[in-house]
Amino acid sequence: MSEQRSPAVTAEDRPPQIHPLAAVDPGAELANGVVIGPGAVVGPEVQIGAHTWVGPHAVLDGRLTIGAHNKIFPGACIGLEPQDLKYKGAPTQVVIGDHNAIRECVTINRATEEGEETRIGNYNLLMAYCHLGHNCVLGNGIVMSNGIQVAGHVLIEDKAVIGGCLGIHQFVHIGGMAMVGGMTRVDRDVPPYCLVEGHPGRVRGLNRVGLRRRGFNGEELKQLQEVWSLLYRSDHVIAEGLRLAREQSLMPLADHLCTFLEGSISKGRRGPMPAAIGR
After folding, report:
1. Which residue has better confidence, 236 or 8?
2. Residues 58-114: pLDDT tens digits?
3. For a 10 Å CB count at each end of the chain, is N or C smaller?
């Protein structure tokens, strides 16, 4: 009679690996392939998706949901109470998607009021010492350089690139594929596809290199440049420029730029960052 062997355990079904020096609450939910490093702390309401790696001395607490294939580096603190004097202990949460890299000593706070959340999408890179305040929403494919301090209720759209050592004012929106130079003071909305820099920050032009690298060229890029020039280089105020731009059939890039700016000039928003004079 031939010997029967148990099937080999593959990487897909390997149980969580928890270092003996980690402190993982029994109530935490860890999927297959999760690795928890020495000194890490994982609270009772934390859920971690498959193959996520949690480095030494990271702290994951509060109502926190983390997706699959993330890397959380040493010293990161995610899901702790918001730094908001209005917070009264509501069971708010942080939700993080898949394939994110959260580097050393990053802090991500949960939301303030009951039913609210701080949310991060997929494939983002948050470099060391970034802070993400309560109620922030990040899209996908964002790169945030070292030492970015993001106040509460900030929204950052897909594929934005933000330089290091800067602060972002609460309630600011940063548009998709925008590029923000290091040490810029970001106190107003950053339009999508734009380059901004300065103290205070000013719009310097379109992120044409970034757009071309992502495959945008030809008529769509040409129309975007024309609409941008109408909004930022003509004698028309933004509202009038938007009205004139809407008189033509807009392709997706120009349409999104206009939609973003229409929202930015609406009541309750910070308003769009102005253009640099003479550029």
Report:
1. 236
2. 999 999 999 999 999 999 999 999 999 999 999 999 999 999 999 999 999 999 999
3. N
